[in-house]
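FYI - complex with pyroglutamic acid, inputs then prediction.
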Amino acid sequence: MTTVLLTGFEPFADDATNPSGDAVRVVARAWSGPERLVTAVLPVTFEGAAATLRALIAEHAPQLVIATGLAGGRAAVTPERVAINLIDARIPDNVGRQPGDEPSLAGGPAAYFTTLPAKAIVRDAAAAGIPAALSTTAGTFVCNHVFYHALDAAAARPGMRAGFIHVPYARESAPTGAPALPLGDIARALEIAVRTSIDTADDIDAAGGTLH
Ligand code: PCA
C-alpha cells in the first residue's frame, strides 16, 4: 500500500498558531484513503525537525513525503522548487538556536530540486480556486532545512519522492493586514498536492518561472 507522510510545523516566533500544522490536522481528520496517510507536526528547531522527519521516514518508509510550513506574507500556496544546503537564521528557533552560514548537512550537495510535480500542483490548486504559485526559495530557516533533509533522504531511497510547500497565514488567525487564506482552503490545497503527486509521475511542461 502507498504510504504518504504529510507534515506541518508547530507555531514559532510571535504566532500562537501555525496554519501548516493546523491544516495537516484537518487533512488527517478528513482522510479517507486509499493510501495510508501519516501526519506529524514538527518542532521549529533545526535539530528536532530534521531528526523527527528522518525518523518518520525510517519508520514508515513512505513513497511520498510532503512537508509544509508557514511563509507569513505570501498570499498563495507555494510549492518550493529548490532546497539549498544553507542555514542562516534571521530569528532563533524554538529552542533559541540561531545558526548563521552553516550547511544543513556538512558535505552534502549545494542544493536539491523538489521531486514533487510542483507545476501540476499549482495547476490543480488553482483549478480548485485556491491561489497557488511556484517558489524558488524556501528561505534559510527551519523550513528549508527540513526540505533539504527530506530530499537528501529521498536521494538514498529510490521510489520515494519528496518536497515542500509553504502556505500563507490562515484567515482565522492571521496578524492584522497579513495576506491570508481560509484554513479550509489551505488544507484542501495540501490534499490536492498529495493527490496530484500520487497521480503525476512527471511534472507538466508549463511556463512557471520568474524574472527575478
Ligand atoms: N515556517 C518557518 C519555519 C516553520 C514554519 O512554519 C520557515 O519558513 O522556515
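The chain has five helices and nine strands. The helical segments are 19-30, 46-60, 118-127, 142-155, 183-199.
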